Amino acid sequence: MYKLGLIGQNINASRSPALHRMLGALNNLPVTYDLQIPTDSSPEAFSKKLDEMLVEGFTGTNVTFPYKQIAIERADEVNDAVLKTGASNTLRIKDGKISAFNTDYTGFIRGYRGRVGDLPAGKVLLIGAGGVGRAIGFALFEVGATEVMVSDLNPAGAQSLVDAINEAGYSARYVPAEAVGEAAKAADGLVNCTPVGHYTTPGIPLAPEHFGDQSWAFDAVYTPIDTEFLMAANSAGLKVVSGFDLFFYQGIDAFEIFTGQPVQNIEPVWNEFWEKYEIVSSLI
Length: 284
Prior knowledge:
The chain has two domains: 2-103 and 245-276, Leucine Dehydrogenase, chain A, domain 1 (Rossmann fold, 3-Layer(aba) Sandwich), CATH 3.40.50.10860; 105-242, NAD(P)-binding Rossmann-like Domain (Rossmann fold, 3-Layer(aba) Sandwich). Helices cover 38% and strands 19% of the residues. The protein is α/β, with parallel strands linked by helices. The protein has ten helices and twelve strands. Keywords: Amino-acid biosynthesis, Aromatic amino acid biosynthesis, NADP, Oxidoreductase. This is Shikimate dehydrogenase family protein.
């Protein structure tokens, strides 16, 4: 039995359990997947919940807000993506050891290539430097980014990501909020890694008039899929990569890490999940 879970806050609406259970059924693997909600957002509460899961014999767990950086502290070993990003969303438990991975990083790469193909990412404006922003910030260089311009309402958080990217040998610079429009016009790609556009926080983090000079756009938000950000990008003729692409492929990558089994025939899995959960999009 592969006993899996998701640790996070405000996760009751997550579709991760459904995706992993479906992957288990389609690959003839016995899988359970249950939500795990610590009592609060503290490192202590996260650690206590993870200890409970260890005792209960969990095979692995996904990790989401606000624990992606905290999770690293409990890992016995981390992979290269975690070392780069300073965050983990996937913990595998095997032979008494906890191994940390970042499938936001790998999932974005697969999603980008699936939608945009071999087009180099080029110069990118990244809005939002939190956990997923850090993963995407580094993953962009795997798909041909030449420079990442980082903006965040928390300047210190944005500068921290810029410094980490530059220290890794790539190119990044901080963009203050008042200069975002100008940076957008100079960009080849636009990325939203803020929660703006979610059902609970509607809106758009970049004014629609700043879309049009770029080639592609990505929004990490996937509820709804057709965010105002992606609709503006689509209207301006940009190729779009959706938050659902990221959700789906990071889940595939995590499932393969947990089970050690490659997922075959990914397209039927996508189609079945899309149909079963009545996901609707005019963009993808």
